Structure formats: C-alpha cells, structure tokens
Amino acid sequence: MKRVFTTPGTHPYDEVRWERRDVVMTNWRDGSVNFEQHGVEFPDFWSVNAANIVTTKYFRGAVGTPQREWSLKQLVDRVVGVYTRTGVENGYFASDEDAEIFDHELKHALVHQMFAFNSPVWFNVGTASPQQVSACFILAVDDTMESILDWYKEEGVIFKGGSGSGVNLSRIRSSKELLSSGGTASGPVSFMRGADASAGTIKSGGATRRAAKMVVLDVDHPDIEEFIETKAREEDKIRALRDAGFDMDLGGKDIVSVQYQNANNSVRVSDDFMRAVESGSKFGLRARQTGEVIDEVDARELFRKMAKAAWECADPGVQYDDTINDWHTCPETGRITASNPCSEYVHLDNSSCNLASINLLKFLKDDDQFDIASFVKMTELIITAMDISITFADFPTEKIGETTRAYRQLGIGYANLGALLMATGHAYDSDGGRSIAGAITSLMTGVSYRRSAEIAGIVGPYDGYARNESAHKRVMRKHAAANDDLQTIGGMDTDIHAEASRQWTECLKLGDKHGYRNAQASLLAPTGTIGLMMDCDTTGIEPDLALVKFKKLVGGGSMQIVNQTIPRALNQLGYLQEQVEAIVEYIAENGHVVDAPSLKPEHYEVFDCAMGARAIAPMGHVRMMAATQPFLSGAISKTVNLPEAATVDDIEQVYLEGWRLGLKALAVYRDNCKVGQPLSIAKKDEEDKTQAEPAPAVQVIEVARPTRRRMPNSRPSMTTRFTVGGAKGYMTASSYPDDGLGEVFLKMSKQGSTLAGVMDAFSVAISIGLQYGVPLETYVQKFVNMRFEPAGMTDDPDVRMANSVMDYIFRRLALDHLSYDERAALGIFSASERIAQQRGELQESIDREALAQSAPIESKPATPEIPAPHTALESHQGRTADAPLCMTCGTKMRPAGSCYVCEGCGSTSGCS
C-alpha cells in the first residue's frame, strides 16, 4: 500500500476542520419535530443535507443515550476498523505499516466524500447486528411448492434487512400445463400475488426503507402475455378507485386492494425473439417441463403488448438475455437468469453483491483536467476494501452466503457523471460526453480487475475460478477489445483512454498468471442515499435533473440556488465573469438557458437536463448507456425518461435500439403515465367528434334571463384549512340562511402575488355564478378530477388524494353542501360512507350528524406560505417530476437510476 492522499505521521482527521451542528428534522405535515440530535460533528465542507442524512440514517445507538454516535469520526472509525482488522487477520497486507496506510487512506477518502460504500455497510458493519454488507440479492425458484414457499421466506428475510432482491419465475410451469396429479397448474403470475402481499406487509414495518424487488419472466414462457399486462390492468383499477374517492396514494389504506405494486417487472428477451420482431415472424412459447412449443404468437404483436403496457404504467422493462450471458464470467456454474430490483446486478442465482460508488467530480482538478493517477489509486483502494468485506460479511441465507463467498462479486461504480460532463463543457448527449464516460468506465473496470488479479496472487482466486477460467479470460479479452475500439475526440478522454489501455494490458497479463479474485467487479448503481451523502449533484450515470435546486440552510429552511456546476462550465466555455453572472441570474429566474444573455445557442446543449425546457431526448439516454455498457461487468440502473406525448412506437424503438446497441437491461418511464391518459384521450376524441358534427337548424326564441340573488350581510359560513401536495390554503364557504351555498373565497400564497390574485378572481367568478343560480353540482362535475400541480396527499380524512387544488376544493364543497344522492351520482363519498359501503351497510344507516361533525372547520386567518421546494422546482422544470412520495417523511422523491431517492431524509426505493 502507498500513501496518495495522506501524510506520514499525521492522522487524516487532523487535516480537516471540524464543526458542531444541530440536526432537527420536522414533520412535513404539521411541523412537529420527529428527529433531533444536537452537537453532531462533521467537516465544515459537508452540506447541511449530507450531515442530516448521515446523522438520521447511519449513526447507531438510541438517540439521547451515551451509546449514540455523534461524530462522523465515530461512524468512519466503526466501519473502517472492521475492514482493516479483517485485512490484517486474513493476510491482505504485507506489514503493519501497509495496514495503517490502508486505514488512513480509506478514512481520508470517506471523510472527503471521494466515494461511499452502499447503505448496508453503514447500517451494520461494526455493530452488534449481523455484518450484512450487500444491498443486492438474486434468488432462485424451482417448479415445486417447497421452493416457492422458500422464495417467500427468503424475500421476507432480505426485506427485513432493508435490502432488495430479484428472481426469475420462468421455471414454474405455466397455467396452460398440467400437474403430475392431472390438474392444471396455477402459473407464476398467481404465485406473484402471494409474494407481492408479503412484500407489501414487510415494507410497512421496515426500519430502513420499503421493500424493493424484481420479478423476471422469460419471453418464451406460455404465461408471458398475462405477465406483461398484469400491472397495466391493476393501474386501471387504481384510476377507477381513485376517481371514486378511495385512498390510493402510496401507503394509503385502500392501495392494498390493488396487486403487484411492490415489484418491478421485466421480460427476459432472447436474440431469437428480437430477430423475430425485426422479421415479423412467429415465435414459439415453450412448456417448462419438456421444452416443446405449445403455442405460437406473432413476435411483433407480443413486442407491441410489452411496449403498450410500459406506455401505460412503466412496466415491464426488458433484459437482454443473450447479451447478458455472452458477458458472463461463470457460465460453467450456471446461467444468469435474473437481476436485483434496479437491474444493475446480474449474476448467478442465490448470490449477492456489495456496492461502492466513486464521486467523479472529486477528481476534476482546478485546471479542469481529470486526475487520472488519483482515480486509479482510489479504485485500487476501494476494490481491496470491498473484497475484504466479503471475508467478514454475514448473509441472509446460507445458499447466498456460499455462492457469494465462492464467487466474491463486487459492484464498484460512480456518481456525478452528469455534473462532470457539464463542468468540462460537454453535452450529455454528445460524442464528446459519451467518449469521456466510456473512457472513465473502461479505466475503472480495467483497474478493478487488475487489482483483483493482484489480490488473487496474494490470497488466491475465487473458488469458482478454476472451472470457469476459460470463460472468465474470454470476457476480460472482450472488455479489452471494446476498449481498443473506443473512439476518442482528442480532449481529456484521450489521456484517460491511454491509461485504460495500459491497465487492460496489465490486467490480462496478471490474470493469466494469478487468475482473478472476483467473478464480477463493476456496475452502475443508482447511488440514491449515498449520492446525497457525498453531496453529488447527479446520481449514477444520470444527467442533471434540473438547473435549479434547493439547498438546505443551517438552522432550518432552504434557498433556491443555481447548480454550482454551471458557473464552472461557463468559465470552461470561455465566458467573461460578468457574462457568467448574467447567465446564472437568468437561469435562477427562468430555470433554463434558452435566450440567456450572451449565451451562444451552440452551447445550450451543455446545459440540457433530464427534465425541463431542453430535456435530453430518450435516445440520448440510451446512447449514453451504450457508451459505458461494454466496460461494465454488470449492467446499469437507469430509466429512460420519455415525455408524456411519447407513443407506443417510441417505446418500441427504445427497446429495439437497446438490444441493437448491446445493453443488458432497460426500463422506460413516460411522464404521467400512471394518471390514465387513455381515458382522457378517449373522452377528448368523443368531444371532438361531437363538435365536428354539423349543427341542426334552430329557432331563436326568447328565454328568461337569470337574476342575481345577492347574499345577505349576515350569513353562516365555514372556513376550512387544507393542504394539497404540501401547499396550504384556506377556503371560506358562505351559505344563504335558508338555502344552499352562495359564496366561496380561497386564500393561497402571499397577498399581492399572482397566485393570490388568480384565486381571488376565481372565487369571485364562482360566487357570482352561484348567486345567478348555477347549481353547485355543475361546478363539481366540471372541476373534480382536474389535474395540475400542486397535487397529491391532503390532510383531509375524507379526500386523501387530490389531482389539484380545484379537485380538492370541489370535492370538499360537494361533501359539505350536496346531499348523499347528489354526491353518489358524482362518485363522491366521505370516508365513513366508503367504509359503510365496503361493509355492505345500507346508505340510510349512515349517521349524517356524525359526518358533519367530523368535517374540518377552522376560522384562523390565512398566513403566507412558501411553496414546497419540489413544487417551485417543478415550475422551473416545466413539467411534473412524476415520482412517489417518500414513505418516511412524505416529501416528493426524485429519480435515481431506475429507483427514487428522497432529498429530504435520504430514503430510497431500491439500492443505494
């Protein structure tokens, strides 16, 4: 071991300025404190957000007790101490001095946010808990009831530990085949129901995150059509139940009636199938027991169904089976059949992978050159540490433990690629951006396998290496050949590629001599929570989400800032300081660069993001994945985002190009695809058709004009305070003393603001309409189900979800001022009425007085409210960040690979 980042005789902590902070986390609903720890210690360059997440997520011990960790030093010491001791005990280091260097270098790297291990390491290592270090698991299921029940149990154990797993159900015989007893088999989709219910139950009690799982089915399975359409059908139920007023939000009490919502689904497609799609030929579905073709389908029609289902609900994704297994280092042990929940870990059944990700922006020097030497040394250090972790790690099942110890799969990756490209003046969707990404990925994997071969020379190759030696070496040569084929454009990528070529040459030479310590080395994970821990601007391989973000401040609150990468990019592109300041000010106000002062149109693409006015095209995401995939042992966690206007044809094209470009797995997400556009489009088509019909001849006759019935000076009123998607407001509804609603006033935002003015004008318009005799039910019909932001969860027990403020207001008015029969015709019911219906009780038995008393009434004056950060951010992005609400703190999450991460508390919906 050699010192690169540390100084002999000086502890790495002594080179850092430390400061004490208070971490106070409040409940998003009512502002109450749900976590509080004072005097925590962090380096002064760590952001408030990073310190908050580490304190709440990773510090161990009960809050308020002496055993509670309070300093980042304690956390890093706890983890690194186990790694160093294990390395010494197992002969990894040549001397005590080498062990000390390893210890110091690792601590320096972690404290300076140069890389991070995945979350289970921080949760478990050095504690009394089992030393689970892996975040990703793959299980196996055979065609027996015993194996299926074992699958349920093993998944439950993994979910309980806060990790995720994937499984391929293709060995289970289809519903079109017979059992040995002569009966008809249930089929894999039926068994998915039980596993889905189990995951939903365990997630609600999980301490660290909700359950994450992947279910895979081969494209030649006879039940493949049912599998493809499973989640799309359930989405139809969600739309219908939500429109009927049921609580269908994430974690809502009624969502449990909908199935298959706790897993990502993927179809494992073969080259034969994809070629059949291209040629438009038939494709055979095969019996699981005999392998004989029992049905033939039109390949294009089946492919179309996959794309249509993904268009409707984002599932299923695709995994390219032959590509995955062509890059498999251990085919003599078994095929790769499945993946982890986010699709980046693809290896043997009953195995696991521990992850670590490098913060690429930390290796961009002040002169805007990539620090190749430091990156090489950091990769060596991480691979050494990750291999040591398998030696001491515990596993949820003995089968997983045996496979992982025998094959020692690692998953090194990186984060902040999007920020690195922008900072160096490269567009994400450009030849230059792809060349840099490919060169860095090739260098990382080349160094990783070279270090793996060096470790094998000291402590031996992985146990399964001997039987797979020829295949493993073949895959190494494929990586090296892909590196030789990499086309550089003559910038910083040229030097990175030259070093990668040297590393691959040395890797092949050492591998021939010693073999390899690890069957797998690299992949690209979503880096959700750990990306926030490292203060990364972008996660995994993703581009920047938007040019404007919200930064948490010491002492609470937040401020809107333009990403700090942008000034650096503008300087790199040659703009003067006053031009930089003007452009940054324009971005802060508008959220995009279009028409920014002094900014050249040819530079717009450098600032393209995943969302907003200049969103990166879907194929731009696919091409970036293709640029890095040949240099990864595993796959890539990434979702290809498509605009709401995208068609089924667009998704078909993405899936086809993913196969042609050599990807291993791919998922798509069309904006707002879970809202039910097919229904609204059909309705619009019907309206257009009606309008297109010629109008019949009419006779003009005199009719009585309506007269206004003014409200008396003294009238009864009710004030309701409400919250919709984090935005608060007040509604005062006044009634005639003798009959019905006559006036509505709405208060949101500050007096004098545009929103306040619009709401005042809308209130006057509605009030005048009511006084001229427009029935309330007419307004309810027009405004209920109207969708725009803010939308989401409310604090009203009768209306748990609202598609917009208008949707909530008129549902509330209907509940307060319309009769049961009138509301029943509109499909609007209170919580008590819905419960009564579910129990089969008669409508007449509902206690109207009890319902009225339960309505929220509050007369306190309205106070100015600042929009929630995600709401203001989305206004800059130009469209909705269509992501779920966080299960932990309730704020809207953001995409991180094919998962989601909460920037408020660090929770993720998958791997971290």
Automatic annotation (TrEMBL):
Enumerate the NCBIfam families for this protein: NrdJ_Z, PRK06556.1
An MF annotation (GO) of this entry:
cobalamin binding
Q: Where is region (Disordered) located?
A: 853-877
Q: Which cofactor does it need?
A: adenosylcob(III)alamin
Stretches that traverse the bilayer: none
Q: Which UniProt keywords apply?
A: Cobalamin, Cobalt, Disulfide bond, DNA synthesis, Nucleotide-binding, Oxidoreductase
Give the matching SUPFAM superfamilies. PFL-like glycyl radical enzymes
* Role: Catalyzes the reduction of ribonucleotides to deoxyribonucleotides. May function to provide a pool of deoxyribonucleotide precursors for DNA repair during oxygen limitation and/or for immediate growth after restoration of oxygen.
Which protein family is named in the record? Belongs to the ribonucleoside diphosphate reductase class-2 family.
Give yes or no: UniProt keyword Cytoplasm: no
Q: Which Pfam families match?
A: Ribonuc_red_2_N, Ribonuc_red_lgC, TSCPD
- Which reactions does this protein catalyse? a 2'-deoxyribonucleoside 5'-diphosphate + [thioredoxin]-disulfide + H2O = a ribonucleoside 5'-diphosphate + [thioredoxin]-dithiol
Question: What organism is this sequence from?
Answer: Sinosporangium siamense
Q: What is this protein called?
A: Vitamin B12-dependent ribonucleotide reductase
Residue stretches making up the TSCPD domain:
713-815
What sequence ranges are listed for the domain Ribonucleotide reductase class II vitamin B12-dependent N-terminal? 23-113
Top-level taxonomic group? Bacteria
The residues covered by the Ribonucleotide reductase large subunit C-terminal domain are 134-669
| EC numbers on record | 1.17.4.1
Q: Which GO terms describe its biological process?
A: DNA biosynthetic process
Q: Identify the InterPro entries for this entry.
A: RdRp_reductase_class-2, RNR_2_N, RNR_lg_C, RNR_NrdJ/NrdZ, TSCPD_dom
